[in-house]
Write a structure and sequence with these properties.
By secondary structure, the chain is mainly beta. The protein contains 2 helices and 7 strands. The strands form 2 sheets. It has a 4-stranded mixed beta sheet with strand order 3-2-5-4. Strands 1-6-7 form a 3-stranded mixed beta sheet. Strand 2 and strand 3 form a beta hairpin. The protein starts with a strand and ends with a strand.
Length: about 100
Amino acid sequence: MKIEITDNAKEWFENEVGLEKGNGVRFLGKVYGSTEVHEGFSVGMEVTQPADVLAETIINGVIYFIDKNDEWFFSGYDLQVNYDKEREEPIYHFIEH
């Protein structure tokens, strides 16, 4: 399982969330909404320090990760995080592997 953060998404996280070197961003499944592969669940994110990491990518000292407790939600997929300029928010794509 891989996590890809596009340049536009990285800039959004750094500018809008105020991330600095040493911060962590956890991606998780949350109730309500939908994704390309889940009905009734959407992707949430929180700024927190990693604990039990399933997958991670580090950009400019920021750790973007998925916790092992969220394996049920991301299993079988890589996660691509991009930025939607019209909605001014991150968008998440699931890529089957």
